[in-house]
Protein backbone atom coordinates (compact mmCIF):
# COMPACT_ATOMS: atom_id res chain seq x y z
CA UNK A 1 0.00 0.00 0.00
CA UNK A 2 3.00 2.34 0.49
CA UNK A 3 3.56 2.40 -3.27
CA UNK A 4 -0.05 3.49 -3.76
CA UNK A 5 0.28 6.29 -1.20
CA UNK A 6 3.49 7.48 -2.81
CA UNK A 7 1.86 7.49 -6.22
CA UNK A 8 -1.17 9.43 -5.03
CA UNK A 9 0.99 11.93 -3.16
CA UNK A 10 3.19 12.41 -6.22
CA UNK A 11 0.15 12.92 -8.47
CA UNK A 12 -1.35 15.36 -5.97
CA UNK A 13 1.86 17.38 -5.75
CA UNK A 14 2.33 17.35 -9.55
CA UNK A 15 -1.30 18.47 -10.04
CA UNK A 16 -0.95 21.23 -7.45
CA UNK A 17 2.27 22.45 -9.04
CA UNK A 18 0.68 22.32 -12.49
CA UNK A 19 -2.20 24.50 -11.31
CA UNK A 20 0.19 27.00 -9.73
CA UNK A 21 2.53 27.09 -12.72
CA UNK A 22 -0.34 27.64 -15.18
CA UNK A 23 -1.59 30.52 -13.01
CA UNK A 24 1.95 31.95 -12.86
CA UNK A 25 2.15 31.69 -16.65
CA UNK A 26 -1.18 33.46 -17.00
CA UNK A 27 -0.31 36.33 -14.70
CA UNK A 28 3.33 36.98 -15.54
CA UNK A 29 4.35 40.01 -17.48
CA UNK A 30 7.95 38.90 -17.84
CA UNK A 31 9.02 37.03 -20.97
CA UNK A 32 11.65 34.93 -19.20
CA UNK A 33 9.25 33.89 -16.46
CA UNK A 34 6.69 32.99 -19.14
CA UNK A 35 9.25 30.78 -20.92
CA UNK A 36 10.25 29.10 -17.65
CA UNK A 37 6.64 28.46 -16.66
CA UNK A 38 5.84 27.19 -20.16
CA UNK A 39 8.57 24.57 -19.85
CA UNK A 40 7.43 23.87 -16.28
CA UNK A 41 3.96 23.03 -17.57
CA UNK A 42 5.44 20.76 -20.25
CA UNK A 43 7.58 18.90 -17.70
CA UNK A 44 4.73 18.50 -15.22
CA UNK A 45 2.38 17.19 -17.90
CA UNK A 46 4.98 14.68 -19.07
CA UNK A 47 5.50 13.52 -15.48
CA UNK A 48 1.78 13.16 -14.81
CA UNK A 49 0.91 11.02 -17.85
CA UNK A 50 2.74 7.81 -16.85
CA UNK A 51 1.89 8.31 -13.18
CA UNK A 52 -1.81 8.59 -14.00
CA UNK A 53 -1.59 5.40 -16.05
CA UNK A 54 0.10 3.62 -13.13
CA UNK A 55 -2.51 4.98 -10.71
CA UNK A 56 -5.34 3.67 -12.89
CA UNK A 57 -3.61 0.31 -13.37
CA UNK A 58 -3.24 -0.39 -9.67
CA UNK A 59 -6.80 -1.48 -9.00
CA UNK A 60 -8.03 -2.50 -12.45
CA UNK A 61 -8.68 -6.03 -13.51
CA UNK A 62 -7.07 -7.00 -16.80
CA UNK A 63 -10.51 -7.58 -18.40
CA UNK A 64 -11.55 -3.95 -17.85
CA UNK A 65 -8.21 -2.14 -18.20
CA UNK A 66 -8.49 -1.30 -21.91
CA UNK A 67 -12.07 -0.12 -21.47
CA UNK A 68 -11.13 2.19 -18.59
CA UNK A 69 -8.21 3.67 -20.51
CA UNK A 70 -10.46 4.18 -23.53
CA UNK A 71 -13.07 5.90 -21.36
CA UNK A 72 -10.37 8.12 -19.85
CA UNK A 73 -9.23 9.21 -23.30
CA UNK A 74 -12.81 9.83 -24.42
CA UNK A 75 -13.53 11.93 -21.34
CA UNK A 76 -10.38 13.92 -22.05
CA UNK A 77 -11.48 14.49 -25.64
CA UNK A 78 -14.98 15.52 -24.61
CA UNK A 79 -13.52 17.90 -22.04
CA UNK A 80 -11.33 19.49 -24.68
CA UNK A 81 -14.22 19.77 -27.13
CA UNK A 82 -16.49 21.33 -24.53
CA UNK A 83 -13.98 23.37 -22.57
CA UNK A 84 -11.77 24.56 -25.41
CA UNK A 85 -14.36 26.74 -27.14
CA UNK A 86 -15.55 28.13 -23.80
CA UNK A 87 -11.98 29.06 -22.88
CA UNK A 88 -11.59 30.58 -26.33
CA UNK A 89 -14.65 32.75 -25.72
CA UNK A 90 -13.30 33.77 -22.32
CA UNK A 91 -10.01 34.69 -23.97
CA UNK A 92 -11.75 36.69 -26.67
CA UNK A 93 -14.28 38.56 -24.55
CA UNK A 94 -12.48 38.80 -21.19
CA UNK A 95 -8.74 38.32 -21.63
CA UNK A 96 -6.25 35.57 -22.37
CA UNK A 97 -4.82 35.64 -18.82
CA UNK A 98 -8.31 35.16 -17.38
CA UNK A 99 -8.92 32.24 -19.75
CA UNK A 100 -5.63 30.67 -18.65
CA UNK A 101 -6.53 31.08 -14.98
CA UNK A 102 -9.91 29.45 -15.70
CA UNK A 103 -8.09 26.55 -17.36
CA UNK A 104 -5.95 26.16 -14.22
CA UNK A 105 -9.05 26.19 -12.03
CA UNK A 106 -10.53 23.49 -14.28
CA UNK A 107 -7.69 21.20 -13.15
CA UNK A 108 -8.77 21.32 -9.49
CA UNK A 109 -11.29 18.44 -9.78
CA UNK A 110 -8.44 16.10 -10.75
CA UNK A 111 -6.60 17.12 -7.60
CA UNK A 112 -9.74 16.49 -5.55
CA UNK A 113 -10.03 13.04 -7.15
CA UNK A 114 -6.46 12.13 -6.15
CA UNK A 115 -7.03 13.33 -2.60
CA UNK A 116 -10.30 11.40 -2.26
CA UNK A 117 -8.51 8.32 -3.58
CA UNK A 118 -5.90 8.78 -0.87
CA UNK A 119 -8.59 8.96 1.82
CA UNK A 120 -10.33 5.87 0.43
CA UNK A 121 -7.07 3.94 0.50
CA UNK A 122 -6.57 4.94 4.14
CA UNK A 123 -10.03 3.65 5.05
CA UNK A 124 -9.42 0.36 3.26
CA UNK A 125 -6.10 -0.21 5.04
CA UNK A 126 -7.73 0.02 8.48
Question: What do these coordinates show?
Answer:
This protein is 90% helix and 0% strand. By secondary structure, the protein is an all-alpha fold. The protein has one domain (2-125). Helix 1 runs antiparallel to helix 2 and helix 3 packs antiparallel against helix 4. It is globular and about 50 Å long. The mean pLDDT is 89.
Gist?
The chain has 126 residues and is an all-alpha fold. The chain has five helices and no strands.
Overall tally of structural domains: 1
The proportion of residues in beta strands is: under 5%
Q: Order of helices and strands, N to C?
A: HHHHH
The level of helicity is: over 70%
Structural class of the secondary structure composition?
mainly alpha
Number of contiguous helices? 5
Number of strands: 0
Characterize the main sheet.
Answer: none
Q: End-to-end span in angstroms?
A: 11 Å
Rg from alpha-carbon coordinates: 17 Å
Averaged pLDDT, please? 89
